[in-house]
Design brief:
about 300 residues; mainly alpha; MetI-like fold; 2 domains; 13 helices
């Protein structure tokens, strides 16, 4: 065998051994991912087309659950609307966090103290946050009603969590308050990665502050903003514990989200097959919004690069 063939054969065996070693390292993680992610997801899809209960044999019903959900279930549509409203509130939280990040990133005196105060809400347990804010919203002895009445803003206490119109905004405000610190830290890290000489050159050229913000700050913050948007989307689709502690989805279905409705159908009414169908819809919605967010981020990137 010629020398080049020997080297080639040895290199091929080495690459094979390396590939086998990589597979051996990845196999446990892939097995766990398949067992606890892919397999339950596949079973959930199959279950959504069946009439199933722990007390009886399963029966194939096709699209019956989806038909009931889309044409006869008003609570589902209310939960879907509430979920979309919650998702729509994420840009508001990110914009507020960006304003705070710009403030604490400046030469403001005591900026580190303000930064710490804002971030302290994020590590708190969501259940504890829900309990505290439920007391603050309380109609009889809550702090917010007491403060508003003391300031002469209202004459009679407001039932924030008892009102169909006010309950969802009240819970969303609580969620924004808790996650605001996380958004601020991410955006602050992005701001500190922007080279200062870009701002200096813009000032020398006489570029106004708003133009510096739109032409330098926002394009350079695009990765951090995209991360915050993805986290906000996931947080909106999985905001179960806060709603469950503060309102339980009520009053009526005013604060019902898809995730809480899935729980109520599955574990409250033991309609696991119907809950599986709602889960499929929620997963499809999450995938759709993720694809749209990725395309929007790619489009913005192209626009910035051309500039």
């Amino acid at each position: 065998m010629a020398a080049p063939d020997v080297v080639k054969d040895w290199w091929g065996r080495r690459r094979t051994r390396q590939a086998m070693l990589i597979v051996c390292f990845l196999l446990p993680s892939l097995a766990i991912f398949f067992l606890y992610r892919i397999l339950p997801l596949g079973w959930n899809v199959v279950l959504s087309f069946q009439s199933w209960s722990p007390m009886r044999a399963s029966r194939w019903v096709g699209l019956e659950h989806y038909e009931e959900m889309l044409f006869y279930d008003d609570v589902f549509w209310q939960a879907l609307l509430n979920t979309l409203i919650w998702i729509g509130a994420a840009p508001l939280a990110i914009g507020l966090a960006l304003g705070i990040a710009l403030l604490v990133n400046s030469d403001l005196k005591g900026a580190s103290v303000y930064r710490t105060i804002v971030f302290l809400s994020y590590p708190l347990m969501t259940v504890a946050v829900g309990i505290v804010w439920r007391w603050m919203y309380d109609e009889r002895g809550g702090f917010i009603n007491w403060a508003l009445r003391s300031a002469g803003v209202i004459d009679r206490p407001l039932g924030f969590l008892q009102s169909f119109d006010m309950a969802l905004p009240a819970v969303i405000v609580t969620d924004i308050w808790q996650i605001l610190g996380f958004y601020m830290i991410v955006l602050l890290a992005g701001l500190q990665q922007i080279p200062p000489h870009l701002y200096e050159a813009a000032r020398v050229d006489g570029v106004p502050a708003w133009a510096r913000f739109t032409r330098i700050t926002l394009p350079m913050l695009r990765p951090a903003l995209f991360l915050c948007a993805v986290i906000g989307l996931l947080n909106s689709m999985t905001a179960f514990d806060l709603v469950y502690v503060m309102t339980g989805g009520g009053p009526g279905s005013a604060t019902e989200l898809l995730i809480t409705y899935i729980y109520r159908m599955g574990f409250g009414q033991t309609k696991f097959d119907y809950a599986a169908a709602i889960t499929v819809v929620q997963f499809a919605l999450l995938m759709l919004l993720t694809v749209l967010a990725n395309r929007a981020a790619g489009g913005n990137a192209g626009a910035v690069d051309r500039d």
